[in-house]
UniProtKB/TrEMBL annotation:
InterPro entries: Ribosomal_L11_MeTrfase_PrmA, SAM-dependent_MTases_sf
Key words, A-Z: Methyltransferase, Transferase
Species: Micromonospora inyonensis
SUPFAM superfamilies: S-adenosyl-L-methionine-dependent methyltransferases
Phylogenetic classification of the source organism: Bacteria, Bacillati, Actinomycetota, Actinomycetes, Micromonosporales
GO molecular function, one term: protein-lysine N-methyltransferase activity
Superkingdom of origin organism: Bacteria
Keyword Ligase: no
GO BP annotation list: methylation
Pfam families for the chain: PrmA (PF06325)
Protein name: Predicted nicotinamide N-methyase
UniProt keyword Transferase present: yes
Amino acid sequence: MPVRSDTAVLPGLKPLVLQALSAPEYAAGTASIDRLRLAPVPLVPELRLVMAEDAIVLWARLEAEAGHVLPPPFWASAWTGGQGLARYILDHPDTVAGCHVLDVASGSGLVAIAAAIAGAAGVTANDIDPYSIAAINANAHANGVELTLSSSDLLDGDVDGVDVVLAGDALYHPSVAARMLPFLARVVAKGARVLVGDPDRGHLAHDWLEWVATYEVPMSGAPEDAQLHLTSVLKPRRDKVDDRRGRATRTTASKGNAALEAMIEEATVDAYGGDEQLTGLFTMIEEHLAVPFTTTVLGVEVSVYKIDLTADSIVAVCARGCHRQRIDLLDLPLPTPAPDGTAWIDAYRHWAGR
Ligand SMILES: C[S@@+](CC[C@H](N)C(=O)[O-])C[C@H]1O[C@@H](n2cnc3c(N)ncnc32)[C@H](O)[C@@H]1O
């Protein structure tokens, strides 16, 4: 089936692995490329997605092909929150049937594909990662559905002409949640419906969202990961929307910003220009952050054993077995409880506008 696109997909960005994703034998599930496989989604086995056996190895491979740092390949996993939301939509097709649907932070396109199968009049899958757009394209073909693809960052604006907005595991990071929740509130204020799929990674707005359903998600992968995780589908409490918007704005404006800015001032006091400010922040993080610590990246446990400075960013050097991966500190998921010195990471993220 043809896949419509409102964006020039991957101009100049054709790594081998993504070219291969659109090959017919791959879409037919008869090929495995660089440990990417077309496999059934554990909670939604009627859908098949291109998924990585080992997302960390894939990430390193993609960066080597691209020759520069890339965001994590979120698109190569079926996230727990998205699995629950896709299951709910397929079991309750009336939530989207005949509607114009936006799947925001679509990743692999899992939720968008479920909405299309459930009978939506039209589905737009939106993700800012161009690799994700390529993967959604391949996954849509593999599942025989038609999607509109969008790589615009929609979170600071309003959306028009949409009846339902779906957000699967879109609250996975505090900086994304801080923009996603006000965006969803504006969507609801304009009269559209919102459904969120989330395993509660700590950024849910419990006062604003109410529970709809909970699922146990069988985890795939290594036997030691074969445990069941709970994930929920939630919807906004309509009476709380405006209240939440006001509170979210005030919180962002006041909470901790003065303290973070004082830390940035301390780190960059003698710095001229962005490069020297970055070096100043790196020095503080290196001095104060307690390493090693363990965290989970793309469902895989890694040990962060060192912080490093590159030409334009600060990176965490992670180890898993004999494999090493450098992850931009802006994207590194942090464990709970956070290691000592994490406040300097917060200061760096604030300085970087995250
Ligand atoms: C944790 S993944 C979830 C993917 C998918 N919904 C699922 O449940 O499997 C989050 C996705 O959000 C995307 N993302 C982050 N910021 C975004 C933004 N401002 N607009 C759209 N997508 C965004 C990332 O690229 C990533 O693919």
